[in-house]
Automatic annotation (TrEMBL), chains A, B:
Coiled coil: none annotated. Residues 1-23 form the signal peptide. The lineage of its organism: Bacteria, Pseudomonadati, Pseudomonadota, Betaproteobacteria, Rhodocyclales. Pfam families: Cytochrom_C_2. This is Cytochrome c. Keywords: Electron transport, Heme, Iron, Metal-binding, Signal, Transport. It comes from the Bacteria.
Length: 149, 149
């Protein structure tokens, strides 16, 4: 994607995230948790294929990989971690999300980058296994620091 | 997509949905509501572009269109409307979902078909407006009959 396009998306995303960041904390919390719930299930389907618990099916794998990739940065770029959303509804969001905002963003970006490599990797079981292992590390990397027990 | 591939996806999906249908009602309810929450926000972004409340941005529009398309049939094909999931957690799922299962599936398919046309339409503001209006009818069509007030 051209740099001008990335810049345009970034600017548009800022407008959207600014608007969403004005949404009630419980709505922001609900949105980000919803994205994670949907993602978790798609990761589960791919993991089952990787482990052999489910027959590998290329179209289905690419479908779930695409789901994970699409959702991967939405919680952050949608502004669903706005100020004050460490409360307002049950949430495991660690306060470091806000006190270390740059590091949180870096961890999220690692996840999102890894997620975006999934659709191409999902065409083949072996490349899927490799991409999934990489994705898992990025999930863990963020959760270890930013999701409370 | 070749018919053999569609058949293979259908078979794989049945295995997955059978597995998920054994998940606790509250988990099925949570999954389908999560998919709807994420979808609603992406529809909101596209609607804002269609109304001119947000500048049209092709990549962002295609991103959100892709999100809607990917999620569109997952609640149903994932088996998240399994038997007994009219209860177990707060849900607006109408009992007709189970008493008129074929009609419910038909309504869901209409939505999913419309959703899948979104990514291509999202490249241009005028075609996006048209596709979005069509999508809205399918949302309403299902909600009128199968989502309680």
């Amino acid at each position: 994607m051209k740099i001008q396009h990335l810049a345009a998306i970034a600017i548009a995303s800022l407008s959207i995230s600014a608007a969403f960041a004005q949404a009630k904390p419980e709505d922001q919390i609900k949105y980000r948790q919803s994205a994670m719930t949907v993602t978790a299930r798609s990761v589960g389907v791919l993991s089952a294929m990787a482990k052999g618990d489910l027959p590998f099916n290329k179209e289905l794998a690419q479908r779930h990989a695409s789901t994970i990739a699409d959702l991967s940065d939405l919680p952050l770029t949608a502004g669903a971690y706005g100020p004050g959303t460490d409360k307002g509804a049950p949430t495991k969001a660690d306060p470091k999300i806000w006190s270390e905002a740059d590091k949180f963003k870096a961890a999220f970006d690692k996840f999102s980058t890894s997620a975006r490599s999934l659709p191409a990797a999902a065409g083949d079981l072996n490349s899927l296994k490799t991409a999934l292992a990489d994705l898992g590390k990025t999930c863990k990397g963020c959760h270890d620091d930013y999701r409370m027990k």
